[in-house]
Amino acid sequence: MRTQEVITAEAQYLVHTYTRPPFVLERGNGMHLFDTEGNRYLDFVSGIGVNVLGYGDYEVLEVLGEQARRLIHTSNLFYTEPQVVLAKMLVERSFADRVFFCNSGAEAVEAALKFARRWGHERFSSPKTRVLAMHNSFHGRTYGALSVTGQSKYHRGFEPLLPGVDFAQFNDLDSVEKSLTPQTCAVIVEPPQAEGGVIPAQREFLQGLRELCDERGMLLIFDEVQFGLARSGELFTYQHYGVEPDIVTLAKPLGGGLPLGAVLVREEVAQYIGPGDHASTFGGGPLACSVGIKVLEKLSDLQFLRKVRENGEYLHSRLMRLQARRSEVKEVRGIGLIAGVDTEFEAKALVEEFRKRGVLVCTAGSNTLRFIPPLIVEQRHIDEAVDVFHEVLEQGVQA
Q: Any idea which fold 3-57+302-395 has?
């Protein structure tokens, strides 16, 4: 199909839940994507943090092809080896004792909320069922995940949401303490808020949350769907902060482009979950888990993580140098290989200007530009993206 044929058919046959730019992506190679007209784009979106190894990683493709020829799906009615191997790897590399597999970040959050409420019911004579979340957070669009998302724009027209959810200010322990109740069973937080503007958590805030949860008998849930699995420069974001949670949600990079999410839990939580309490038909299937094993092997490599930290520092230093030169750039935030840049322009307009110049970036709020490249990015790619940013600001942004 030609480009316009695809765009016209999409408008006719798909539910209109997305606004897409007028080009059709066809293939990828390394750090670049190519559309049906032959145009090449430097990718600083990475499938919203999914494609951490870029496009066409040879080892991932080898595993994918081999497993596809052997077994793609069985359901969780039966044992398969890749699921057990990947769970073991995640446990051995983390704080966790057990793993539950699903298909996405939103599903991982749903499972985490169910596990926390089951724990609150079973652990206390007077059940604890309330969950404390943060304003400006984003945890997904399914009902439970949406209910703990602290942005009202996502709620409109879908109320009533899940009851028993309270909100506090991010990075504000006093606000958290005032928002807690005797029935609070868990606190859920993104270590850095991603969709809310790439806002890092303060170390003291997360340490304070850990202490409050210990003192008051609550679980601490970290949503690491976007920042987890090497994006921060550590395998897990909680390692960057030196604070261990009780539950962690993972997804985006884990399946190497295939749908795969995971919930990491301590035994204290897992002991209350039994057969029939939660399930997923597709979760942890042999194809996705086989790829996940290879992805996790590569992301766990100490040299790979060191390179992420080095390139993350370089990305932020280049953006901060641009900020020093251009008054239109108001703030640069982030950790590792993700950056949020506030400007005086509407972010969507900037995204379009980047695309015209062959670089793909995305937004994280109305005035926040988000840079989230594959973790294989090199300094020359960062230079190219930031140079394009400077060119856009020099030449002006079309409204």
A: Aspartate Aminotransferase, domain 1 (3.90.1150)
